[in-house]
Every structure is written in C-alpha cells, then in structure tokens.
C-alpha cells in the first residue's frame, strides 16, 4: 500500500509526473541499496556514486538547485512535493543531488565572489561536500550566544579558528565546514558571532570521533586547532551569523519536515500492509479494532501535520517571516513521524524491531528529530512567546 497525498495543498499538476518519477527512483533504486549505504565505507561510496549517475541519466539530478549552477531550478513551492518523495529514504537527497541545497542557498546569498566562484558549481555537481558546525559539547544547542569557538583575525585579513563542535552531519567526508565562531565580544553576547567557511584539509582540522545516534552513523565531533581560514571565506558581514543562521534554519527545518512526511508515509504503508497480510488465530489483523485504531491515529497524525508543513513552505516561498509556522511544523512533523513509526512497529510485533524492515530506522529518525535541529521545547517556547506578544492569529485563512 502506498501512502497518498493527504492534506493540502495538492501537488501542482505540472509537478506530479516529476514527483512520481522521483518516488519510483527512491522506491526502486535507493531503498534496495539502504543496507549498503547505511553500513558506510568504500562499498557505500561506490553505491552512492552509481545512484548519482543513474539520477543524472534519468534527468532527476539537483532538481531544486539553481539552473545557472547546473541544477534544474525547481521552485520551492513545487520542490516541496518532490522533497516528500525523495525523503522516504534518508539517502534520497544525497542520491538525487538535492542534499546541498541549504549550503548552495547560503553561499549564493552570503558568500564572497571568491567563494561563489570556487565552490558553487562544484557543490551542485557533487564534486565538493560541505557540513555545518554550530553546536558544541557542554554548550546548550539552544543558546548559540554561548559559543566557545573563536576566530581571530590575523595581520593580512585571514582568520585563525579554534574550538570544538559536535553532532555534525557528514563531517568525516566533508571538504568544507561552515563554522559558527565568536569574532568579537564575550560569551553570551548576541553580537560578535560570525560564520566562516573552513577547508577540512587545512592544518589543525581534526575529526575527533563518530557520534552514533541510537546506533546509526552519520554524526561527528570535530576539533579546530588554529585552523587558518582565508579572509574571503567569511560569510556575510562580520558579526551577522545569527541572522544568516536563522535564515538557513527556517529553510532547513522545513525541508526536514517534508522529508519526515515522506518517511512517515513509508511507515504508514508498512503498517497497512502488515495489517492486511498478517493473520492469527483470531483472523486478520486488519479486522481487529485495536489495529484499526492504530491505522486511524496514524492517518490522523499525517493529515494533521502535513498542512502545517505546507504553511511553512508557503511563507518561506513568499519571502515572509515563518518563525511561527516553522516551529509548529517542526514539532508536529517530528512527533508525527515518531508516532506513525511506533504504531507500525507495534503492529509488526517482533518483526518490527529487527533488520527486515525500515521501521527501526524510521522510529530512530522520528525520536532524534525531537531533539536535533532544535528540541521540541525550544520551538514551543519560541512560538508561545510570539503569540503572547500579540499579532499571531490562531489559524491561517
């Protein structure tokens, strides 16, 4: 059973065929490769390279990235529906070349001419890999103003960066890392934070360790020990990191919500398939009222979360502030993915705990989503404060 397009808005007619092609690519090519891709190492790299070649051959490469850089320029309002389809697998965005979207947008808007010329086309082509280093050990991730990493400007205009960062996706394979560092002021000051793009092959850069999340790889801790960074690699203006980071986070959290919708749809499909195919001494599971309630609750969660995510998409696409919409969507989508994966596991029984389905990975993603990229409590507090200051309507319409 395949999860349908519940909720509003519906996929634009001109995007339906492309979305369906992406869904088929993820279902037929990416998902069968997940065991190899999850394991990492040379075999995973070879499998990913093969998938990327196939995506290019099928005209599915870098769909949301700018045409002038080698992408296909699909606008966010249309790409949102594609992001659901490719997000059904954690590896979908990387296989289809859309994974660097956040970095491409950030460098295009805030990178110097030198940075844009050196990296953007190579980033879109998949020749250069990036990661984003913001949080630190022993520093609350919800309080970037307490960042301990420092960048000192040397004679001649270059920077020297020192500090430690953790829970960084893809750091071990990255060629470039965007680092949040204090360039002025004291810890706790809201001003004086800047973003610098550091090459990972520079002296003093070190991958400290991998940080498995519920046993899954992909997150890392790094150390920067007087890492030299060219002056041209400062992103935006000195001291403007929080504004740039906020812009990045709004889009990034919304993209993740879209991909969580895709993963929840996959879990919902597994739930329904199990209910329809499994029988016991009391008959098929689908005939049991408790199982029917699980199906209803899962569908309700999906249909409730999806419009919230698309409200955030619409605000960002229109260039409007979307703090409230993104906060609501992020909390709702993360909880929803965890809930749908959880009931799917329950209906599968012991089979839902083992390696024969994607359910353990989907549940792990949902649970981690409620902490990573801003915990539920951060978004709840932020949205509530905006509501209580006035000017936020209880519903859109």
TrEMBL record:
Keywords: FAD, Flavoprotein, Oxidoreductase. Residues 131-225 form the Acyl-CoA oxidase/dehydrogenase middle domain. Belongs to the acyl-CoA dehydrogenase family. The lineage of its organism: Bacteria, Bacillati, Actinomycetota, Actinomycetes, Kitasatosporales. Homodimer. It comes from Streptomyces chengmaiensis. Residues 243-388 form the Acyl-CoA dehydrogenase/oxidase C-terminal domain. Pfam families: Acyl-CoA_dh_1, Acyl-CoA_dh_M, Acyl-CoA_dh_N. InterPro entries: Acyl-CoA_dehydrogenase, Acyl-CoA_Oxase/DH_mid-dom, Acyl-CoA_Oxase/DH_mid-dom_sf, AcylCo_DH-like_C, AcylCo_DH/oxidase_C, AcylCoA_DH/ox_N, AcylCoA_DH/ox_N_sf, AcylCoA_DH/oxidase_NM_dom_sf. Residues 13-127 form the Acyl-CoA dehydrogenase/oxidase N-terminal domain. SUPFAM superfamilies: Acyl-CoA dehydrogenase C-terminal domain-like (SSF47203), Acyl-CoA dehydrogenase NM domain-like (SSF56645). Its cofactor is FAD. This is Acyl-CoA dehydrogenase family protein.
């Amino acid at each position: 059973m395949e999860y349908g397009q519940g909720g509003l808005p519906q996929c634009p007619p001109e995007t339906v065929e492309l979305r369906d092609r992406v869904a088929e690519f993820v279902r037929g090519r990416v998902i069968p490769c997940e065991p190899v891709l999850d394991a990492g190492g040379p075999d995973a790299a070879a499998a990913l390279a093969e998938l990327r070649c196939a995506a290019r051959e099928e005209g599915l490469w870098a769909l949301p990235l700018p045409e002038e850089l080698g992408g296909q320029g699909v606008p966010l309002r249309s790409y949102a529906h594609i992001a659901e389809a490719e997000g059904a697998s954690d590896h979908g965005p990387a296989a289809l070349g859309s994974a660097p979207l956040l970095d491409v947008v950030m460098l295009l808007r805030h990178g110097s001419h030198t940075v844009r010329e050196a990296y953007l086309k190579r980033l879109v082509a998949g020749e250069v890999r990036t990661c984003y280093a913001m949080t630190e050990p022993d520093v609350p991730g919800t309080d970037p103003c307490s960042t301990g990493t420092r960048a000192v400007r040397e004679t001649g205009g270059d920077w020297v960066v020192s500090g430690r960062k953790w829970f960084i996706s893809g750091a071990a394979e990255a060629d470039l890392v965007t680092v949040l560092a204090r360039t002025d002021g004291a810890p706790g000051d809201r001003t004086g934070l800047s973003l610098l793009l550091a090459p990972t092959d520079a002296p003093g850069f070190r991958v400290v360790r991998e940080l498995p999340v519920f046993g899954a790889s992909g997150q890392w801790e790094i150390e920067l020990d007087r890492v030299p960074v060219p002056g041209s690699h400062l992103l935006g203006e000195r001291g403007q990191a929080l504004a740039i980071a906020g812009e990045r986070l709004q889009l990034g959290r919304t993209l993740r919500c879209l991909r969580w919708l895709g993963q929840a749809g996959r879990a919902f499909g597994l739930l329904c398939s199990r209910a329809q195919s499994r029988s016991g001494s009391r008959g098929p599971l689908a005939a049991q009222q408790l199982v029917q309630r699980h199906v209803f609750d899962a569908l309700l969660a999906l249909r409730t979360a999806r419009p919230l995510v698309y409200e955030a998409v619409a605000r960002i696409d229109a260039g409007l502030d979307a703090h409230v919409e993104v906060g609501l969507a992020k909390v709702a989508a993360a909880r929803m993915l965890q809930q749908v994966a959880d009931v799917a596991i329950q209906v599968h029984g012991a089979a839902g705990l083992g390696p024969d389905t994607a359910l353990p990975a989907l549940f792990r993603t949902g649970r981690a989503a409620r902490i990573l990229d801003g915990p539920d409590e951060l978004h709840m507090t932020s949205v509530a404060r905006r509501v209580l200051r006035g000017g936020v309507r209880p519903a859109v319409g």
